Amino acid sequence: MIENSTSPMGLTTTEAILRQQQFGKNELAPQKKESFFHKLLHIIAEPMFLLLLVAAAIYFILGEPRDGAIMLIFVIGIISIDVIQEWKTDKTLNALKDLSAPHVKVIRDGQEITIASVDLVPGDLMMIYEGVKIPADGTVIRCSDCCVDESSLTGEAEGVWKVSTENALPASDHWRKDYCYAGTLVTQGTALVQVDKIGPATEYGKIGIHVAQAPDEPTPLQKQTGSLVKLCAGIAAVLCALVGVITYINIPDHALGDRLIESILSGITLAMAMIPEEFPVILTVFLSMGAWRLAKKQSLVRKLPSVETLGAVSVLCVDKTGTITMNQMTVQDTWAPDGNVATLCEIMGLGCETEAYDPMEKAMLSHCEKAGFSREHLFGGELITEYAFTNELKMMGHVWFHDDEIIIAAKGSPERILTISDLSATERTRVDDKIQSMSEQGLRVIAVGLMKPKTEADIPQTIEACQLTLCGLVGLADPPRETVKADIAVCNQAGIRVVMITGDNGITAASIAKKIGMPHSDHIITGDMLSEMSDEELREKVKDVSIFSRVIPEHKMRIVKAFKENGEIVAMTGDGVNDAPALKYADIGIAMGKRGSEVSREAADLILMDDNFSTIVDTVQDGRRIFDNIRKAVGYVFTIHIPIAFAALLAPLMGIAPASLLLLPLHLVLLELIIDPTCSIVLERQPAETDIMDRPPRNPKEKLLNAKILLKSVTQGLVLFAASFGTYLYMLGQHPDNPELARTMGFAVIMLANLFLVQVNSSDHDFAYQSIKRLAKDQVMWAVSLGTLAGLLIILYTPLNIFLKFAPLSVSQFLIVFAIAGISVLWYELVKLIKKLNKSGKVSI
Ligand code: ADP
Ligand code: MG
């Protein structure tokens, strides 16, 4: 318990810091951080490193400490790269986590500020409102219409209406009405709460529902590459034994010890060459960097696997109001059956919340202002009671004691208001016609009704029991966002269906849908139709209906389900408390950063910071780009491993003397040092292909490495192998006494080819020079490419070459190597050219 009751100014910043030192952070279990040492251990335990260490150890045993030492230096180099990479991804992911972590509004230093919920301390004054999941236990200081769902704690489904401590009766049971509990959910109203207990001290913490943070599961792609790596490692193990044995047989002239050691070394070389240990790294780097880039574009990814799924989205279910439209309403049309528009306006104003936050009510009140009804006039009386708006009723009412009479001012969807209004049949037709014509213009139509009970006793209990006189209709416009039309066109082109979900009536929705060019905008499913449909019927219907009107949040779940059962990958937006289940169930749940509730954000995979439809489309496009780049990187790694692995396999099989091999373990490590950074940096930065939104969504079941990519990679790899190994063999034949020269030529071919390869494979359609042009301003790309070149020059032309068993090349030799490397990779540009010509129909093959 904290002794002092804080002033209405809240805590001061210094007090808050002191209290945090005293009470700790507001979290159930402190975040575990992996120690640096642990991380290092993790990296070293990778098979690749174990192989390296074994190789280094063998050199030492062999009495070649120089080779052993160089190996170790390289190992340190690779470990550093890995550690830096991991540190960077960790940092990125943590920053993302912090951005999407729950926040809470508090009063500190007399000011309203938003802080992370973990930073709450006892004594803080926190402000809670609809949709907030209460982050700590505390006493209710002030409250208005505050209802809390405490079922997570008490199991009681019924909401609890909170009261302030001042007005509280002595507590009759354990759960107090003037107290809010961590882990429960505000379903209505607002309250000011003074935090009393945080973290494990809260009731929630005490029960020990330690909803242990779900461990970060590997993403589907990570699983896929995981098994790919395992497969390669398995094959490597078999071949490693084979090569070892053959090397042993090939060198009968060596002493037994040497024979053994040489065989082990050549086996290890092969194993290192074959294991594509870059795959997992590529994935984490690409996914986390992708998420980071998205965050900069107003789209916060909460779960890493969503980045993969995004690219496969085939159906986008979006709320109309606020996402497709601007949520800036204006009253466009008013109509009273008796022509008395003034009364209509006055009653409409009386029917609004006194502190309106809904854009529609704001628009109504400003219209009243223009019509001469000031807020002072409207809200000067006494509010006797109110009928709250619910999604099911779609109407609401206020009962005022206004100008000496009791007035019930009700407003809501015409369907509902008309059922409780008394209208003659002819009047009814007139009204219906007017509703129809207003809706067809895309206006949201609201009916306004009035009732004047004689005494307070005559006030009906519920709004449905009222008998209203219809004052008239109000038509409100909420224009679509400017970019929506273009975005819908992009989605159509990209094979992504846009589905509009709204609480408005169907005609209004259809009219807006037409304005923004949505296909299938003639058919509509209303909430009532949906309620009567069976799941099978709905599944059939959703195949060609894209507008759902008059829905309640509970329907969203069924809509997502129907689409998912049809095999679609569904993204769904939601902002309300009741949207959370549908958001969880959708493949990609999208919450609104601005107007969304905390609960919906917690359930979502993605938080849209600007609530804008365009951002969703951009995000999907980025998802496709990231997936594309992962594919390119994986294909590239595959390709570049082929010449290395084949060289490590074939040379010993051909009986080449161990000291003359193209690749010794040393050189493999050197290649590792280059390959990994080149691709994860250059390919990760590749912008989207120009046709990225012209193709249909990717089939989610499709493997990362499909037949097409495999064919391309293997062909490219084999050509590269022929070029590098051929050069090496030829030179070895010419200068049998100078294996260093042969090795250097072969190695330089691989290294230079690697540079070209990254550029060639950075796009499937565009030529390498175009890709380079696109990244021409990117300093990082240049740094990496020129760095590789500089590295090559250093290892060839400085004394380092002795340690690395290289020989300096003459200028003509270097140029030859350069040409061979170029040709061995750039031939693929011709394939692109032929494909392009083929497509434009100039040549047919
Ligand atoms: P959307 O899903 O498009 O945001 P809502 O669920 O907010 O739609 O509203 C659905 C319908 O409920 C509206 O078309 C309107 O008829 C009615 N409605 C919404 N808010 C109010 C309100 N404050 N007063 C009266 N009626 C309302
Ligand atoms: Mg709404």
Write the layout of secondary structure elements.
Elements: H1 13-23, H2 36-44, H3 47-61, H4 65-100, E1 103-108, E2 111-116, E3 125-129, E4 137-149, H5 151-154, E5 160-161, E6 179-180, E7 185-197, H6 203-207, H7 220-250, H8 256-274, H9 278-296, E8 299-301, H10 305-310, E9 315-319, H11 320-324, E10 330-335, H12 341-350, H13 359-370, H14 375-378, E11 382-387, E12 395-402, E13 405-412, H15 414-419, H16 425-440, E14 444-451, E15 469-477, H17 484-493, E16 497-501, H18 506-515, E17 525-526, H19 527-532, H20 535-541, E18 547-549, H21 553-565, E19 570-574, H22 580-585, E20 588-592, H23 598-603, E21 606-608, H24 613-653, H25 665-683, H26 707-734, H27 739-760, H28 768-774, H29 779-797, H30 800-803, H31 811-840
Parallel strand pairs: 9-16, 9-19, 16-18, 17-18, 19-20, 20-21
Antiparallel strand pairs: 1-2, 1-3, 3-7, 4-5, 4-6, 4-7, 8-21, 10-15, 11-12, 12-13, 13-14, 14-15
The structure holds adenosine-5'-diphosphate and magnesium ion.
Mind telling me the CATH superfamily name of the largest domain?
Calcium-transporting ATPase, transmembrane domain
Task: Provide a count of the helices.
Answer: 31
- Low-confidence sequence ranges: none
Based on the coordinates given, report the CATH architecture of the largest domain: Up-down Bundle
Spatial ordering of strands, largest sheet: 8-21-20-19-9-16-18-17
> Proportion of β residues?
5-15%
CATH topology of the largest domain: Calcium-transporting ATPase, transmembrane domain
Looking at the structure, what is the overall shape?
elongated
The biggest beta sheet reads: 8 strands, mixed
Structural class: alpha/beta
The top level CATH class name of the largest domain:
Mainly Alpha
Helix content: 40-55%
Number of strands: 21
Radius of gyration: 35 Å
| Total domain modules | 4
Mean pLDDT: 89
Domain Cation-transporting P-type ATPase N-terminal: 2-64
Organism: Acetobacterium malicum
Protein name: HAD-IC family P-type ATPase
InterPro entries: ATPase_P-typ_cation-transptr_C, ATPase_P-typ_cation-transptr_N, ATPase_P-typ_cyto_dom_N, ATPase_P-typ_P_site, ATPase_P-typ_TM_dom_sf, ATPase_P-typ_transduc_dom_A_sf, ATPase_P-type_domA, HAD-like_sf
